[in-house]
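Worked example

This section walks through a single chain of length 156. The input is the sequence exactly as stored; nothing has been trimmed or padded.
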Amino acid sequence: MSSRGRKKAALYEKLQLLRSVTNSSAHSKTSIIVDATKYIEDLKQKVDRLNQDVATSQFSADQNPLPVVKVETLERGFLINVFSERNCPGLLVSILETFEELGLNVLDARVSCSDSFHLEAVGGENEGQQDSIDAQVVKQAVLQAIKNWSESSEQE
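Given that input, the structure is written out below as tokens.
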């Protein structure tokens, strides 16, 4: 087979591959290339829409991400972790007020609120408290405090 014949066979093979990738039913070279061009334009539009969707979802997530709350039961109290990727001015006060309402004493705490917010606190029940509370009650109360804080900080 001559060099020209090999090139022609390679071109034919590549056109058939392009035809299959683009789901074209065309048979002529020109029609296959036109279908491929349309296919590429459709893909560009889909990429643009997806990029817009991602940007929109990131913007809304950046605007209102609520902190993550984890509560574990300890022998005499609870380990409460609250984390947010953004700084949350005033949130610590809201959470500490909730601890007080629940009758929890803060026995130990570490807080970071420079670029992000992270609270790790050990809360113990007051000695004189008659009703025992569980981790789920503490978590729900902290989540409610975060929700109230979020709503009040949005209004400002």
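What to look for: The chain has four helices and four strands.
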